[in-house]
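During the first year of the project, the team set up a workflow for recording each protein of interest as an amino acid sequence followed immediately by a discrete structure-token representation. This format lets reviewers and collaborators read both layers of information side by side without switching files. As required by the reporting guidelines, we include two representative entries from the current panel. The first entry is reproduced here exactly as it appears in our internal archive.
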Amino acid sequence: MADDYNFAHFRTSNFIVDAGRTLRGVGVRPGQVAPDFTLPDVDGRPWRLREALDRPVLLHFGSFT
């Protein structure tokens, strides 16, 4: 599983870029529709955000480490 994880995202340079985007207000604003994306569900099957139209969605991001 660790081989599939994008550890490079946690480099300092990425934190600085992400912080700058946050301060400039780049990204989805509260009340805006989020762009569609696909992620694996807990059983490994693909799940698309658009499958949850008109329902609240909580995205929880975590790490195995």
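The second entry, processed by the same pipeline in the following quarter, appears below.
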Amino acid sequence: MAFIPEKKNNKPQEVKKKFGQDPFYNSHKWRKFAKAHKKDNPFCVECLKVGIYKRADVTDHIKPIIDGGAKFDLSNLQSLCHRHHNRKRGKERAKKYESKTKTET
């Protein structure tokens, strides 16, 4: 008889926390708010700076929530394509890593 492993019954929030994602971003309130923001601001702000009209994929917090940015303040939001959002997140993570290593030495 073949061995069939038992399925783990992870709740979505547990899975998200495991990968470091805040469950806030999966809340109904945020998804509705982000969708409305993208409807009003459909193009990536970084692409627009160079004259490219590329549809936004992400409603991004300019100042991250973890750094004290307001969750539902329109002045703290911007529309970004995946490329620019990933670039921004990479810079934020590098900055945090750099500041963390400086304080440890």
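For the second entry, the following points were noted during internal review. The helical segments are 12-18, 28-40, 45-49, 82-104. The chain has a mean pLDDT of 85. Both points are flagged for discussion at the upcoming steering committee meeting.
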